[in-house]
Amino acid sequence: RRIELYRTGAPMVLGEILDISEGGTRVRQVGRAVGFSLHSGERLPKVFFSMRDGTQISCPATVRHFISGQDGIGLEFTDIDPAARRAIAKYVFDRDREIARAQGIELGGHSSRKSSVWSQFKRWISS
């Protein structure tokens, strides 16, 4: 998945999402923009990407990790719309479920703990 990183007064930079959670993402910069350098704590006014289901996410982000020349820009989503956060959480849950199934592990099985966690998640997603 591609992600666009926007900085005030600078050209947009493309990245590739390496990992994502409802709170943030780890990104690999695609290409090297001349003079592109971030600093921990720097606020990006906008990051933009599309989820697998077509949901478009646009929100500010704060840089939590950046080492020039290395893969892995750590971004924390800030001021994200609750519906967008739920869309990301649903994607992560569905992806984890696919991985678990591929490994022969069933999530949300018959145990009361699993069922309770699953029902809590479904209530949270639908709110």
What does the model show?
- This protein is an alpha+beta fold and 127 residues long.
- It folds into two domains: 2-80, Thrombin, subunit H (Beta Barrel); 83-126, no CATH class.
- Helices cover 28% and strands 34% of the residues.
- It has a six-stranded antiparallel beta barrel.
- Strand 2 and strand 3 form a beta hairpin.
Features:
2 helices; 127 residues; Thrombin, subunit H
- What is the count of distinct domains? 2
The CATH C-level name of the largest domain is: Mainly Beta
CATH topological fold name of the largest domain: Thrombin, subunit H
Major pleated sheet: 6 strands, antiparallel, barrel
Derived structural class = alpha+beta
CATH architecture heading of the largest domain:
Beta Barrel
User: What distance separates the N and C termini?
Assistant: 27 Å
Which geometry do the CA atoms define? globular
Q: Calculate the mean pLDDT score and round it.
A: 81
Radius of gyration: 17 Å
* Annotation field: number of helices: 2
> Percentage of helical residues?
25-40%
Condensed summary:
Helix content is 28%, strand content 34%.
Layout of helices and strands, plus pairs?
Blueprint: E1 2-6, E2 13-21, E3 24-29, E4 43-50, E5 56-65, E6 73-77, H1 82-102, H2 112-126
Antiparallel strand pairs: 1-2, 1-4, 2-3, 3-6, 4-5, 5-6
